[in-house]
Write a structure and sequence with these properties.
Layout (H helix, E strand, L loop, with lengths): L7 H10 L7 H12 L6 H9 L3 H10 L11 E6 L2 H5 L2 H12 L5 E2 L5 E6 L11 E3 L2 E3 L4 H8 L1
Parallel strand pairs: 1-3
Antiparallel strand pairs: 1-4, 2-3, 4-5
Helix pairs in contact: 1-3, 3-4
Bound molecules: FE2/S2 (inorganic) cluster (FES).
FE2/S2 (inorganic) cluster binds next to helix 5.
Length: about 150
């Protein structure tokens, strides 16, 4: 996963290019995360200024949606689906396995910066669960052995 280093000037340009959209805050946040891999705390005042919102309102939206990261992700991001259909197919076991293998909890990045482990809520691959995205590659029918293979 390659993301640009945080750059306020670039962030401002991204924000400006989305200003005319309806409900511009979410597209702006997605675009910022796409560019930098996360939404830097310094983006909140830029977004607030651009949309005439308070910083608290912007912060509230960033923290409400699980998909927005507030810190730089690791080199590899593993997102395990923990929604109902995947849970019924054993995603809990997969999450436990990954937590112990990577030594981190959901929402955390390993100290060496190699891996970030995240939960997601449905990847549209319910019939083939448990599902996960490993660096944006969708995988289904996952077992601990299969995910270990992908991580290797
Ligand atoms: S519930 Fe996991 S992909 Fe839909």
């Amino acid at each position: 996963m390659t993301a640009a280093a945080w750059n306020a000037e670039r962030a401002r340009a991204i924000i400006d290019s989305h200003r005319s959209l309806r409900g511009a805050l979410l597209p702006m946040l997605h675009a910022l995360q796409e560019e930098f891999g996360y939404v830097d705390a310094d983006a909140a005042p830029l977004l607030a200024d651009s949309l005439n919102l308070s910083k608290a309102e912007v912060h509230g939206v960033i923290t409400f949606y699980h998909e927005f990261r507030q810190s730089h992700p690791g080199r590899h991001v593993v997102r395990v689906c923990v929604a109902e259909a995947c849970q019924a197919r054993g995603s809990d076991k997969l999450v436990d396995h990954l937590k112990s293998k990577l030594g981190i909890d959901l929402g955390e990045t390993r100290a060496d910066g190699e891996f970030t482990l995240e939960a997601v809520y449905c990847l549209g691959n319910c019939a083939l669960g448990p599902s996960a995205l490993v660096d944006d590659q969708l995988m289904g029918r996952l077992t601990p052995a299969r995910i270990d293979g992908a991580l290797a």
